[in-house]
């Protein structure tokens, strides 16, 4: 210009060149979208496979949790057998359709959120590309579980209602929503929400923490980058055992509050619900009712869930890689 000073960068010959900006490459955006989509798909499949596998045990556990009957392995077997005789084999999976409607988005959101929270916390704490240290590992799991629970809670409420009521009461999932809304009010769909969130923080935190920690210890001691499927199942089973044992009393409280409207009870708060359960049934027999069944069901479900997620992720990455190579 008039003063002879160039405003922008110049090349070796003194010619003006376009300034270089640090805009993200389209390929990087696509990679991130594919990663999120893979996590959602893998999580959805993991939740569906795991919950379907243990659905009869899950329904039986809920029925004991919401009743004042004393729990024992023999009584659990009798209940399953009576249900089979009176209502048929497929009645053992009653409420599983509601479980699928809930668990597919729940698991998809939880696993995907966990991957994203790990990445965010890794950047924040300076562990990008490396395994997180214990505390951020626990926080990533807790945040993932909390995010999923907040977004899918009414579906969990519906599932609990369908599990403990005769099939004549509710014909399908939509019918449950309509009847609860008309007869008990929309607020009822969030009854038991607080104990759910309080329970999911230690449950999801400890589950993901335990599984990720066992995988890291395995890699450190074996020299293998990835555990085998049976090892993944074992690590997931340990994660489920620890996570569910830590949060179980709040799970019982949640179920009591969710099903109060159809079981003839009124529970106004977490503490009052706990007090009533302890007063009527005792501490261990009340707040830990059905825990022994959960020690069978929980590790199986969590082990299948984590293993299915990891193996599906690996498979999807291989498929995408082979597609890119062919191109």
UniProtKB/TrEMBL annotation:
Bilayer topology term: Multi-pass membrane protein
Higher taxonomy: Eukaryota, Metazoa, Chordata, Craniata, Vertebrata
Solcar repeats: from-to residues: 34-120, 132-217, 227-315
Name of the coding gene: Slc25a42
CC annotations in GO: mitochondrial inner membrane
Protein name in UniProt: Mitochondrial coenzyme A transporter SLC25A42
The reaction(s) this protein catalyses: ADP(out) + CoA(in) = ADP(in) + CoA(out); adenosine 3',5'-bisphosphate(in) + ADP(out) = adenosine 3',5'-bisphosphate(out) + ADP(in); AMP(in) + ADP(out) = AMP(out) + ADP(in); ADP(in) + ATP(out) = ADP(out) + ATP(in)
Localisation: Mitochondrion inner membrane
Region span, Disordered: 1-33
Gene Ontology biological-process entries: transmembrane transport
Record key words, sorted: Membrane, Mitochondrion, Mitochondrion inner membrane, Repeat, Transmembrane, Transmembrane helix, Transport
